[in-house]
Each structure stands twice: as C-alpha cells, then as structure tokens.
Design a protein that fits this description.
The complex is a heterodimer of chains A (193) and B (147). With 193 residues, chain A is an alpha+beta fold. Chain A has helices at 2-27, 54-60, 78-81, 86-95, 140-146, 157-166; strands spanning 34-41, 46-53, 65-66, 69-70, 73-75, 99-105, 109-116, 119-126, 132-139, 154-156, 170-177, 180-187. The chains are: A alpha+beta (193), B alpha+beta (147).
Chain lengths: 193, 147
C-alpha cells in the first residue's frame, strides 16, 4: 500500500515540475528580432552594418505621416500600379503549388520568379555592363501581410514587419556585383558578426 | 556637540540626496584622445540632467529655429527612443573603412558613439532618457518662443 502512494507522489512531483517548466518556457519573452543590412565594398575596403530591432521599426512607422507613408501604410499612386491587380496576383501565387512562374532568358540577363516552401523567390542574373546577381527570398506570409489592407493601392508595412518578426531567421536579399556585396536578413543576433 | 553632529548629518544627507537627484538621469561621458598633430586628451563626465536644465538658459529666439526643424519629427523620435530604452543591448550602426571605424551602440540605458581613426579616438556616451528630455525641452522652448 505504501509503494503505490510513493509512486503516485513521484508522478505528481514530475508532472508539477514539468508543468512548471512548460509555464516558464511559455512565459519567456520572445527574443528581439533584428533586421540586418550589411554592405561590403571590396574595392574601397568599406563595410557598413546596420542592425535595426524590428520592434523599433514597428513602433516608429505608425507615427510617421509624411508623403505616401501614413500610419504604417504606404499608398501607391494608380500610375505606379500600371493596372496590375497585385492582390489578385498574390492570391493566385499563394494558392498555386510550388512552381517556377516566370523565367526570362535574355542575352545578358536571366530572371526567375518562383514559389518554394512558402517563399516567394526572385533571382536576377545580369551581365549587362558589370555583372550583378540579385536574390530575393520573401516569406509569402510577409507578402500577404503587405497586401492585407482593404484598399488595393495600400501596402501595410507594419503588418509585414510584424510577420517578419514572427518568421524564422531568413536571408531576404543579396545583391552581388564585381565590387559590392549587399545582404539583408533577419535574425535574433544583436550584431552582424 | 550633538547639535553639530545633527547639522553635519543633515548637510551630508541633503548633499547625497541632491547628488542622487542630479545623477538620476545618468552621466554624459566624452573622451577624446588625439594623437596627431599633437597629443591631447579631453575627458568630461557630467550629470545628464544638467543638459535639459542648460537649455533654459539659451535665449528663446536662438532655440526657435532648432525647435521648428525638430518639431515635426518628434512623434517618430519619441516612439524610437521609447522603444530603444526597452530593447536589449545591440550595435545599431558599424561602419569601417581603411582609416576609420565608427560604431553606434545601445548599452544599458545609454547610446554610445565610438570613432577610431589613425589620429584620434572619440567616445561619447549619453543616457537615452537625457536625449529624450533635452529634445522635449528644446521643442517646448521653441513653442514658448513663438507665443
């Protein structure tokens, strides 16, 4: 009779300690997310690193009311839309299976637009003038958040930043030419090193 | 003798309390080490609370222009500085070239700027709270000047 009580006590203790650990993990604050921009110029030996906490950008943007930016939303002029229904386009891409949507091969430029693993991917390889490679990988959730406003000609930057901070570590943009290398990425590290 | 002791204790307490109030916003630290053309070393450490107080002594008409320029950006500055205080320590900007290294970082409640080059080293540390209150004071002074 004594042994089952001891076992029950041990199980209760284990459950209590595990629930305590789970509660502490759930209560732990989410680590700060940073948008990193790194520009390296091998010709001049220059490097510029900017590390912006996404929380600062999220808090700051709604207070900016200048030009096309109001309350964290950018309004695009109808002339810049060129008659393209971006929301419809994004809806079509989101519902489509992983695929390559656009492939343009020219003499001095290759462009590829694809959807892969929940990301919108754009690759540009250009050899016109000086050689340049551009790679853009944006999580589709971020693109969705960008077009989440009711109006078709508005981009919700704050919602996109919020989604970006919820997304995992991601290399968003790289641009490489003969002398310069630009990288934009998101992670939880406090510096670019 | 007891009375003198009480007076001394009172004075010491008042001085400590005063120092506590003056230093409550932290300290501004400026350290400049110049190696060329001639070696010089300037080191200044001052209570940050003195800066917004000092703006009271600047003629109002001189502050008007600065206030007008900075006024429209105050909502953004308030939001940024408020959030900056709450974030963990991080390097905001790091610029390197062959001759110079500039670093702007947030450490504790301070915004720190370090510049290193072949000829000099500059280190400026300012409490973020002091930046906020100085800018608020600057804008308020400008508003008062226009009234």
């Amino acid at each position: 009779m004594r042994k089952p009580i001891q076992v029950l006590g041990a199980v209760c203790l284990l459950v209590a300690s595990m629930s305590g650990m789970a509660a502490s993990v759930m209560a732990a604050p989410q680590p700060e997310r940073y948008l990193h921009v790194k520009v390296e110029d091998s010709k001049d030996g220059e490097s510029v690193n900017v590390n912006l906490p996404l929380s600062i950008a999220e808090k700051m943007l709604p207070s900016i009311n200048k030009g096309n930016l109001h309350n964290g939303t950018v309004t695009i002029g109808s002339a810049d839309m060129n008659g393209i229904d971006f929301k419809g386009l994004m809806e079509a891409i989101r519902t489509a299976p992983d695929n390559e949507f656009v492939t343009i091969k020219q003499k001095d430029q290759d462009v590829r637009v694809a959807k892969s693993n929940g990301n919108l991917i754009v690759h540009v390889r250009s050899s016109e003038g000086e050689k340049q490679n551009v790679d853009i990988t944006i999580p589709l959730k971020v693109v969705d958040a960008l077009f989440s406003n009711a109006k078709d000609n508005e981009l919700n930057i704050v919602a996109a930043l919020h989604q970006l901070s919820d997304a995992g570590d991601a290399l968003l943009i790289t641009v490489q030419d003969t002398t310069q290398h630009v990288r934009i990425w998101v992670d939880s590290r406090t510096s670019s090193d | 003798m007891v009375l003198l002791g009480k007076i001394a204790l009172g004075l010491t307490g008042t001085m400590l309390a005063g120092m506590g109030v003056v230093c409550s916003e932290g300290m501004i630290e400026v350290n400049v080490v110049e190696r060329a053309p001639e070696a010089q070393h300037v080191y200044v450490i001052a209570p940050a609370m003195l800066v917004p107080i000092a703006t009271h002594f600047i003629p109002r008409d001189k502050l008007g222009d600065a206030s007008r320029q900075i006024g429209p950006y105050m909502p953004e500055i308030r939001a940024a500085l408020g959030q900056l205080r709450e974030t963990e320590d991080f390097v905001l900007v790091d610029v390197k070239d062959r001759e110079q290294h500039v670093e702007v970082q947030k450490i504790g409640g301070d915004l720190i700027v370090d510049v290193h080059d072949a000829n000099e080293t500059v280190h400026v540390s300012t409490p973020i709270r002091a930046i906020s209150s100085t800018l608020e004071q600057l804008v308020d002074s400008g508003i008062d000047a226009t009234q």
